[in-house]
Amino acid sequence: MRRDWPQAAVAYEESVTRAFDALGGVDLARAAEADRTRREALAAPALDRLDLRGLDPWGEEDESAAVMLAVRAAGAVVLPWPLAHELAVPADLRGDVGGVHLTSGDVERLDHADLLRDAVAVDLDRGVARRVTAGAPRPAPLDPFASGVVLGPEVPGVDAARVTAMRMLLDAFWVTGALATAADLAVTHARDRQQFGKPIGKFGEIRWRVADLSLALDGLEELALHAWWLVRRGEARSADLLALRVQMIEAANTVLANGHQVMGAMGLCEEHDLTVIDRHLQSVLHRPAGRIASTGLLARAVAAEGFDGVYPVAAWR
Amino acid sequence: MPEETSVDLRLGTRADALRVRLRALLAELLPDDWTTSFSPDPAVQSVVTRVVERLAEEQLLTLSWPEEYGGAGTDIWQQAVLREEMWAHFEPRGPQYMGLNWVGPVIMEVGTPEQKALHLPAISSGQAVWCQGFSEPGAGSDLASLQLGAELHDGEWVLNGQKIWTSYAGLAQWCFLAARTGRGAAKHDGITIFLVPMDSPGIRVVPIESIMGEQHLNEVFFDDVRIGPEAVLGEVGRGWDVIRRVMKHERIGISRYARDERVLAALAGHPSLAEPAALHEYARALVHARVARLLNYRAVALNDAGRLTDREASIARLASIQLDQEVAALALDLSGADALVPDPSAGLLGHVEDVFRYARSATIASGTIEVQRMLVARSSIEGDRRAS
């Protein structure tokens, strides 16, 4: 077994992280929420300087790994740009399709729909892609870059299963990055914040929360690596990607809830990065389906496909 | 995809072949209703003997040992497969797993030539049963506060005190005993490890009835037990160093997720899964099982590379022990009230009550869940420590 990411991809992730930090890190998300034009004015040029939007996640191993780690780095600052949406478009379709949204049933709003030219929405239930027409911005605290949308006719030539798998994979890396930042904030606070004459990280209850959020995050990291490897080998089935999505959502709930609890009231403030990360992640955690609905999709996929493991689960429907 | 990639998460053809071989062998040797080796029942112990002898015959018993001690020179993933298949099949090596997994390896590391000559052949041939004399009524998670005393009189060590929660004490010929031989600046100082014959005069084993069944828990009393200096393992007063070596070998010793995956696979298509809520719980457990396995594989890989810290080691354990209880509760719930009584004719699912009872100990045995969380948090907040 070899489980270390390619060195070239790791180096690229470091350069992406430096570039986003130079733009202010999570402050860029705050700025874009206050003024949507900042997405095009600041985020897009940075991505272009990194040649990130042109990379192919289905490419050679180094390139594919670089995409995953770069998306993780973007997620670490909840970059106000639909990067996963763009990168989930296969290279041969990028001239015609500007991005991929995932949906489950009818939708009225989608995140960053106003930015993406010629985007499609792939319906998980029906396995078809439909053209997205964006309407007016309709932001909300938990959906800061939402726009109204109308879904048009089916778009032929889009391999729905393929782009769905890639979008789910990219989402998981995005969320992994964001949760790593949230976990770092919580751990740093546990180390630095003094109450009752000692760091709060000396208290058992705080330590348990740190342990639980660490377990959730590490579990997601390992499962994302595994899913990426399965996709690379052409062995990923829908149950594998849905399992990743379920773990992603559960991990996010654990990390964010425990992170807030460790941070206390400070973490609830808009000036604190944890709150921005929390709010800005909710879109990906609920689109195309939240925890319960995603678990339902996984359950049906397991029954229909089985599930691989040391003792594989056989399909029974 | 190129042949050679940076990332390859397969365990390798040798590990895969070993898994096939072990399953065939266990299918041949184990009765259909095999769920425990924790029993003094001669029928159960004869199965254990049969399995151990056959494994020894096929050089599979000491698979993980170095070749110089009769091992097979295997890679870490073959060893991982052995752990998985043994645990998935209710550890049919019985109490031998302790000798093989950590008593033998620690004796290799710090034992005298005489100790190696005495103990290693007996362990590698499956002839010696060991128990671990660590916990005491006043020293559980806080093991370093142990009080069982060892005093030197006329060239012999005299042991007095009590151990508790000692698995297999009633079957064991040897005890890997931690005793206090002195006091130092820290409470970890002054502990010494002894390799004690269990038939020594003055040792009394009292079984404790528990939810887990027979042989799981015992009290062991030491009253003026006299042993020679040759029984000391490592340096007198430096037993904590030896205990840390034991902990290192135990850290990735139990592959609980493998049995959980086996139980989950057996539940596939169960009529109770027609209920959507049940199917959802089942699907979640499958995700958690995969995550636990991957986190354990990470620990194995990092350990092999000398990069394993307390953080990753304990995260793997946390995932496994919580999974164990989740799957046990789920299996019993899905199986319905009739499953509260074992049904030897129903294969693995006829014994979910046994799985459930045993899983109660998962978050307590070999370092409680609280200790594991503390280790993860300490490592995260105060800096990583290499597991050693």
Automatic annotation (TrEMBL), chain A:
Note the SUPFAM superfamilies from the entry.
Answer: Acyl-CoA dehydrogenase C-terminal domain-like
Q: Does the keyword Flavoprotein apply?
A: yes
Q: Which UniProt keywords apply?
A: FAD, Flavoprotein, Oxidoreductase
* One GO molecular-function entry: acyl-CoA dehydrogenase activity
Where would one find the signal peptide in this protein? none
Pfam families in alphabetical order: Acyl-CoA_dh_1
Acyl-CoA dehydrogenase/oxidase C-terminal domain: which residues? 175-275
What PANTHER family has UniProt attached to this entry? ACYL-COA DEHYDROGENASE (PTHR43884), ACYL-COA DEHYDROGENASE FADE28 (PTHR43884:SF20)
- Its protein name is Acyl-CoA dehydrogenase, C-terminal domain
From TrEMBL, chain B:
Superkingdom, according to UniProt? Bacteria
Looking at the keywords, is Calcium present?
no
Q: GO MF terms on file?
A: flavin adenine dinucleotide binding; oxidoreductase activity, acting on the CH-CH group of donors
Q: Which residue intervals define the domain Acyl-CoA dehydrogenase/oxidase C-terminal in the entry? A: 237-379
User: Listed GO cellular component terms?
Assistant: plasma membrane
Q: Provide this UniProt record's keywords sorted from A to Z.
A: FAD, Flavoprotein, Oxidoreductase
In this chain the Acyl-CoA dehydrogenase/oxidase N-terminal domain maps to: 49-126
InterPro entries associated with the record: Acyl-CoA_Oxase/DH_mid-dom, Acyl-CoA_Oxase/DH_mid-dom_sf, AcylCo_DH-like_C, AcylCo_DH/oxidase_C, AcylCoA_DH/ox_N, AcylCoA_DH/ox_N_sf, AcylCoA_DH/oxidase_NM_dom_sf, Mycobact_Acyl-CoA_DH
PANTHER family xrefs: ACYL-COA DEHYDROGENASE, ACYL-COA DEHYDROGENASE FADE29
Name of protein: Acyl-CoA dehydrogenase
